[in-house]
From TrEMBL:
Residues 9-119 form the Transposase IS200-like domain. This is REP element-mobilizing transposase RayT. GO terms for biological process: DNA transposition. GO terms for molecular function: DNA binding; transposase activity. SMART domains: Y1_Tnp.
Length: 120
């Protein structure tokens, strides 16, 4: 069965979620979290998107991102690829770090944005 196509819009706000595989936490320590956010900042410089809110947990992360004209898939590929390469090198491992593709939902109302901000 094929994957569902990702909803895309270049001028939308997205709820983005990433999750690690069961065998490895996404962040082993605060240094990993700092490095992940460094990659987010580098991606912001390249793609000019906005991050309204985020939450980094041990095995997953949530973001509220305003794509601001950029492709959300390219943004997340940049961040996840660079972080996985860093993580595998630092922790001397090989293989996948992320459980699956990132998940993204378009924030289509002010009410949803308000509730999501409280959640994240």
């Amino acid at each position: 069965m094929p994957r569902l196509a990702r909803q895309k819009s270049y001028d939308s706000i997205f709820h983005v979620m990433v999750k690690s595989i069961v065998e490895a936490p996404l962040f082993k320590d605060d240094d990993d979290k700092v490095k992940f956010m460094d990659f987010v900042k580098k991606a912001q410089n390249q793609f000019e998107f906005k991050v309204y809110s985020y939450c980094l947990m041990d095995n997953h992360a949530h973001f509220i991102i305003d794509a601001n004209g950029a492709d959300i898939s390219k943004i997340m590929h940049f961040i996840n690829y660079k972080y996985a390469m860093y993580y595998n090198k630092r922790h001397e491992r090989i293989g996948h770090l992320f459980h699956d593709r990132f998940k993204s939902l378009i924030v289509d109302s002010d009410r949803y944005l308000f509730a999501l901000t409280a959640y994240v």
